[in-house]
What we know:
By secondary structure, this protein is mainly beta. It has helices at 6-10, 17-27, and strands at residues 3-5, 37-42, 46-54, 63-65, 69-77, 80-86, 90-97, 102-107, 113-117, 121-125, 129-135, 142-151.
Amino acid sequence: MIVYKLADFAKNPNLSPKIRKAVDFLMKPETASLPDGTYQIDGRRIYAQVQTYQTVEPKKILFEAHRKYIDIQYVLEGQEVINCLNLEDLEIVRPYDEKFDICFGIAKMSACVQLKMTPGDITVLFPEHAHAPKLPMFGSHKVKKIVVKVSVS
């Protein structure tokens, strides 16, 4: 659960081949102008979801977690907070759905890591990390983000 600038993260010589492929996709200049939608990078092993949305202050923060995919989240425009915590600190309120590779829960404790994401920031969230994206930072903002899903198998 670390926030980097994409350009700095791309210089890391120790990235796994699949994460390197995802980062190479994000580094392409034309990627920033893609419209919302899903884009195959390496079939279902690596794919990207381009999303545009407004951040909102939730009544209750629901965290999501995945088992089959690592999330690489990259902010193109706007700013948001992503709350993160370890999976063992999550109380499951909607059980895991294998078809959509997701479960939802609430934090067992109030402490979590807040990742403050601004344009050019990237974070890598592994299956052991539950996360709550789309939270406002200094008021509501329109965000354009790319989430690259990288298969763990």
